[in-house]
Amino acid sequence: MKKQLQLSSKGKPFNNYVTHCVGTGRMGLALQKEYQEHLKFVQDKIGFSYIRGHGLFCDDVGIYQEIEKDGKPFVYYNFTYLDRIFDYYIENNIRPYIELGFMPKALASGDRTIFYWKGNVTPPADYNKWVDMVKATLTHLIERYGRDEVIKWPIEVWNEPNIGFWAGTMDEYFKLYECTARAIKEVDPDLKVGGPAICGVDTENWLHSFFKFCRDNNVPIDMVTRHCYMAKQPKIVGRYVYQEMFDPSYMIDELKMTREIMDQYDIVRDKELHITEFNSSYDPVCPVHDTPFNAAFIARVLSEAGDYAQSYSYWTFSDVFEEKGIPAAVFHGGFGLVANYMIPKPTFYTFEFFSKAGNELIYRDENIIVTKDKDGRYCLIGWSYHDPRDGKTLDPVSYEITLPAEKAQYFSVTKVVGGKYGNAAQTWSNLGKPRTLTKKQAEILKEAAKPLRYDSKVFAKDGKISVNMDIECNHLVMTEIFPVNDMTDTYWEFDTKEFYGLE
Amino acid sequence: MKKQLQLSSKGKPFNNYVTHCVGTGRMGLALQKEYQEHLKFVQDKIGFSYIRGHGLFCDDVGIYQEIEKDGKPFVYYNFTYLDRIFDYYIENNIRPYIELGFMPKALASGDRTIFYWKGNVTPPADYNKWVDMVKATLTHLIERYGRDEVIKWPIEVWNEPNIGFWAGTMDEYFKLYECTARAIKEVDPDLKVGGPAICGVDTENWLHSFFKFCRDNNVPIDMVTRHCYMAKQPKIVGRYVYQEMFDPSYMIDELKMTREIMDQYDIVRDKELHITEFNSSYDPVCPVHDTPFNAAFIARVLSEAGDYAQSYSYWTFSDVFEEKGIPAAVFHGGFGLVANYMIPKPTFYTFEFFSKAGNELIYRDENIIVTKDKDGRYCLIGWSYHDPRDGKTLDPVSYEITLPAEKAQYFSVTKVVGGKYGNAAQTWSNLGKPRTLTKKQAEILKEAAKPLRYDSKVFAKDGKISVNMDIECNHLVMTEIFPVNDMTDTYWEFDTKEFYGLE
Amino acid sequence: MKKQLQLSSKGKPFNNYVTHCVGTGRMGLALQKEYQEHLKFVQDKIGFSYIRGHGLFCDDVGIYQEIEKDGKPFVYYNFTYLDRIFDYYIENNIRPYIELGFMPKALASGDRTIFYWKGNVTPPADYNKWVDMVKATLTHLIERYGRDEVIKWPIEVWNEPNIGFWAGTMDEYFKLYECTARAIKEVDPDLKVGGPAICGVDTENWLHSFFKFCRDNNVPIDMVTRHCYMAKQPKIVGRYVYQEMFDPSYMIDELKMTREIMDQYDIVRDKELHITEFNSSYDPVCPVHDTPFNAAFIARVLSEAGDYAQSYSYWTFSDVFEEKGIPAAVFHGGFGLVANYMIPKPTFYTFEFFSKAGNELIYRDENIIVTKDKDGRYCLIGWSYHDPRDGKTLDPVSYEITLPAEKAQYFSVTKVVGGKYGNAAQTWSNLGKPRTLTKKQAEILKEAAKPLRYDSKVFAKDGKISVNMDIECNHLVMTEIFPVNDMTDTYWEFDTKEFYGLE
Amino acid sequence: MKKQLQLSSKGKPFNNYVTHCVGTGRMGLALQKEYQEHLKFVQDKIGFSYIRGHGLFCDDVGIYQEIEKDGKPFVYYNFTYLDRIFDYYIENNIRPYIELGFMPKALASGDRTIFYWKGNVTPPADYNKWVDMVKATLTHLIERYGRDEVIKWPIEVWNEPNIGFWAGTMDEYFKLYECTARAIKEVDPDLKVGGPAICGVDTENWLHSFFKFCRDNNVPIDMVTRHCYMAKQPKIVGRYVYQEMFDPSYMIDELKMTREIMDQYDIVRDKELHITEFNSSYDPVCPVHDTPFNAAFIARVLSEAGDYAQSYSYWTFSDVFEEKGIPAAVFHGGFGLVANYMIPKPTFYTFEFFSKAGNELIYRDENIIVTKDKDGRYCLIGWSYHDPRDGKTLDPVSYEITLPAEKAQYFSVTKVVGGKYGNAAQTWSNLGKPRTLTKKQAEILKEAAKPLRYDSKVFAKDGKISVNMDIECNHLVMTEIFPVNDMTDTYWEFDTKEFYGLE
Q1: Degrees (nearest 5) of the Cα angle A395, A400, A402?
Q2: Among residues B128, C18, D83, D85, which is most buried (max CB within 10 A)?
Q3: Among this protein's residues, is D160 annotated catalytic?
Q4: What is the complex's ipTM, to 2 decimals?
Q5: pLDDT, tens digit, for every residue of A443-494?
Q6: Which residues act catalytically here (chains A, B, C, D) (predicted)?
Q7: How many angstroms separate the most distant Cα atoms in chain C?
Q8: Domain count, chain B
Q9: Structural domain span for residue A458
Q10: Which residues of C touch D411 (CB under 8 A)?
């Protein structure tokens, strides 16, 4: 049964921050060629404005250095890799969304680390040295990239201090935040600082406490940052983590709740809310990330999240990532929009499609948005997701949509992701699940990763055009409809019936 | 109704010369950037061995030069453009199939020209000067590219002397051929020379006469060359030529006839037959060239032509072409495999698909070939064509094919051209038939030009695999079936049902 | 003997329009790959704003087309090549400086042509058809590239109507100018039109007559255009033209004279003067163009021309050029800044060096300019030229220049063209004067074409720095002096004497 | 005073293995973009056949993995990074010279590590697991790259077991060598294995003991490997190590001695000797590596080493290197032929020049080699080095060399490195010693890094040509002399005196 929609062209602004920011594996990985190729690819096709990841101060980037001089430790800062990484970002038209962390070993108060790559999560042994490092780094960045540029780079203090990423208490985090925020403003009062960068554990307590702390101590805060994941308890089997998901409305509710808490505090009421990480599962070996299910699931989030947050940074753009070790196979459940060998996953298209959405929202429900641009283009994005582990599948969702026409003729192009199309993990399975790929296999997978695509003419009738959209279970669909000038008449000798079936 | 085919793996060699040679617009166009981009694209995807076109000696390439010295004409040769063109070819891994012609104005005996670009088709005013030019050119090529290389470049004398491309008589052509062939052998006896390069007019008379002439006068001939087109009488309307086609068997019959005549003469009985031009229509503004009909129609030719000829050179690889003037629109009925803006046409895929055929032919009928490679890959190519101007369409042709399996598991990938897929001219029509393209339109057309593609797993049963092929009217289909090592078991913790529908 | 210059940092604006415009071979050549590679190279290194050449309306670009329809001629316009050419220009960040000409054969009133490539120079047979073509072309350009862009493209009517480029009289040119200028303004009043595009023959008469004509008939004119060459009578020997040159002051005087005449007419007094062609010799087979003499000679022009003209377009950027036929050897006396195989000639560096001049002119004489930028960089360019055919050579010109220092330390880098350096034609002669190049030879010549280059530290003393410049005969020299922050002290352990001679 | 050399064209084969192998920072660094760019650059210009470095089995490459399965450790191998690295090598036309080491943490018997990047140097806790890993890795490589390819990759067991790179005794190394060598031969008897990979400490004892051990136990050995450095005791100051050098004859003597010991043992007498590492200093922060001194010093080694060893692998091709931490400045005394930002150092040219040496050695002394090719090209390389810390400098070494001429005319091209030319570290010092570079600075340094270059004609006289070579202290010079066909006469109208000084 088709839903009938008779839409007017009058909509409201579509709050769409889909290209604002994207997550990345640790900074040190940005030195890699494969990483850079993925980033270039993603920027060419989607074009994010900012990129955020961990590890700026870790020893593989190596900023903080101590050597002995005259028998005493002598501190200096090594920006060789930092400059190379940020140069790469700028070349790719993406700006750093700076996350200050984790702890250089020489500055650390303890040994606790996180991840395969062993990020030290302990508080600084000496807060003055930490502050000096922060200030030296920012000062260096301003010298190299210019003040006008660097004040556009938001700065977040640490990552998820409410769980194992921080070996200190809540108060210790507040101490870190305070001295860091003040240091940042000392370097330049126009630099933007935010926190508390928490994930969804004990959230309300942390938010209230943090806002009170900032308010009571007059600590600078320019934006509120937090994370949202939508996975239930994990089942760990070997290298894999298997999980079920909450509904995407879970995340929308979290955003609403955060915004409501913010509204209770003058200091943040009018500030931006940045979701500096989000995804379905929070685990980089959970199969969900490679699936069309995820593409449709995330689409639902993107359709509404912008009403509550000004940034939601998908964690992450690429499977060049090492938190749980080096990927043991091309498809392994990694976070990336792009798998290794530069193969786009279904969710890559969720971001590509939403980056093409019009700036006016004409219609939205649980499965579709209808948007429009000033130049008369319509952009429809549909999705349907269902976890098939219950052995069931959803019926296709079908729409017949009538839209106002300003032109006599339109060009409609549709792209479909799901099933046999744009589903590279399935093709990889068909190929026998090779761990690494030959050139030939990589080529096959790149081809396979493309959506189904077809186009057609649409003629207006009585000032309206009519389009269908059919969305199968665990599929993502986009239809763009462009107004067209038909020039057939300028070919006066053009006899369509002589064109072997051309329409 | 499906045809059932139970095939054994035992076939015969597939005589497949699809990548041997391809045609090109006049040599001077090879200087152009757009031409070079198309050539690179075609070589990357198909990889022809040779390229043949007109105009080597025309004044836009400018080899023959006369200036005044001490009051008398002084001849010299200018290889500036020739070297640039042939350097480009070599860089693109394609060798010249040299056609000697047409006539430099300063050497011509008359004014008659052919084409928008005005190739002079008159015999030389002075045969000695012609011979000198031929020898100087070949000598120069040997110096520049090395003898071992240049003796691999076949040399054809003139083009279609049996119609308006030659202002002389048959005897005058034989005179030209004789002095040219002898000159070539003087430069190096291992250089290969051939003719008579005729098209399908008065063919039998020309072939007999030519072979007798060579035999009786002991004139060198290393290969026989001729052309084959399959179009009926044209209807000319404005810039377009509308034509109906003979059946492809028309061309196969021409090849057989030619081979039979060759068999009557010792001097050519064991020589190669090179079809140095072929296509459906011989006119560069005939819409047929842009259609899926043509893709299927040409496929039928390619399925069998190699049994009778050792080369059949599709005329031409690119729409960078000016015989009837500068193309007035992206799609205009040009010969090219690739339209301007580097958009592959349906027939491009006919060549790409046949370039992937296996070297063993297991089965062939009027709609399909089934081939196999030593590495166990099967390659099936199917086609179905019908001129829809009678208002009819053919029913799909369907096969169920059983093939011997050497492995337990296979990977099958299918590509379909026709209808909504791989049919860029239709998308161009949907876009309103723009004459030139914006960047955005060019992008859309490049995407649209790709075939439909999908893949699947195939499991062997009782040492056999079973595959279906369904071929709609005016469609071209290829299915490749690769043996696969399934590695799923090496992921001991891999629980398929946890993979959200992955199969 | 050294000239001693004690300079203050206070200068005047340097009127430097060196990168405003550059000349090109006919439009049709812009389709070529070699042409495009040269253009990209020149734009990367020098970066011109506009490009101007002949042949927009010639039949190889093929805009004007007539076919028969219902027994009558039917006119249409083919923008296939025009769009490709202008797309290429825009991609290379260079804008068309449109020259309207020559005459499509189908529109021509006669057969007279010019050049190897046979540009028809006769007036239109039908001025209405000419005007229609101009309007259709401009309208198309506005549709494709946008009005805001196209109104930045100056439009010149015809080329050198005062000599053999125009088969009509002066009055007939004025007629052409008038109807064309009015047509342009009809398309958009903000489009800029200019003329009379004359060369230096009967100049004063033409200028006065043209300005009077425009004034008396109220004909639009937005800028005055003319050409300047500096060669004396030619001696023609075979393919070469040998010429002596006037002094560059000859051109400067021409500019002054033109400006003085302009000052006598209200309609052009405040308008820009565009030298839409200039060079030493006006002949594309005159050896002077390949020499270091020319580099120094043109430098003298560039040092002052901007005081009188707002554009001076060197004729031409590349040896991809066919006015006297296809180049018969790499070095052949062509106009280009870049020889074939993308080898920069000495004069290439004249333009590169002047493109780096500072915007403030501190000192200028017959052999040198001293300029400065806001960021404290000094840029000195020196030259010395002498035609050595009198068997003499000039002594080096030497300067010792004292400049105010704002920093304690400077970095000085010098580039020298002439003699053994940056003189590819000499290396080509050393290689035996090959007509076309092997890859190896092309590599050698590209390396050879680079200037001598060295750098050094300069320390300020009493707030001043002192630099030497020595300019040998037929050499061009540039010295750039950058202020530097010395960071040696931040390497506390750096012991210079341990660095094996590092200073 | 010039040395006069009258040379005949008769020489002996020049044993020149300069391009056989080159060293690299640890394998994991090969994932980096900067590393890959340097490698591509070096391969384009020099073209090494093999590359050798540490860290194949370290945890950043991550081959060896243990996870828990059913409560027990389950071993698997992760070739994700290994394949990527070796794919890159193959793409760059360089083959791995495999060094088996160091120890994965999960396999290690202890905690001892070496370098900033902490390579574990302890013997395996379980030799069976080590052997399994070696065999699995080689088996995988053969599957991926093919047996015919992989048997061309020499395999060396461990690195410098005679010093701190091995936490075991000599006997323990022999044990490791034996089980590893046998495992290799089990995988494929045609795989090549070698050792003992020692540096110059206790050399004679190690060589004798190792050869005896292999002989007595019938252990496979296909080539002998060792290292050679030429530095005296270091003085460590902050981040720098200052050292004086032995004379290069020190290394030549080491090679002779090694060869003499090899000659005493049947099992290695006819085997190749591979110097798998060599350089002046063995320390990556010793300024010598950045200097023209080093370029000349290493030239002396290259002129003779091939008489005693079949491979000598310069340690290393690039400053992408981390043994003593992340480089703290562009020039910091790193081993690389290429500094960061892809700036070639003087010693880069030593390798480039020697890669162009002819295969016939006509003359050799302490400062020069004269070589010749079959095509008649002469190649002369000269050098002169002196450690200037004694405040002295050597006089230039000058030669006047007479060589047999087969042609009437030659083309001579000379390149000079030293002083103001090809000395990027000096330019970097002139720029103020910036730690990281702006784009502009990187460009300046790349330009500065090029040698001085000039060319000239050389005319034969009495069947001989005469060339000069002048070599200043701490300079490197190459002169190539090519036979030339002078074509001036084919330009009959060419009047040299009209060419403005062209010779």
Answers
A1: 160
A2: C18
A3: yes
A4: 0.95
A5: 999 999 999 999 999 999 999 999 999 999 999 999 999 999 999 998 888 8
A6: 160
A7: 92
A8: 2
A9: 3-10+360-498
A10: 430-432
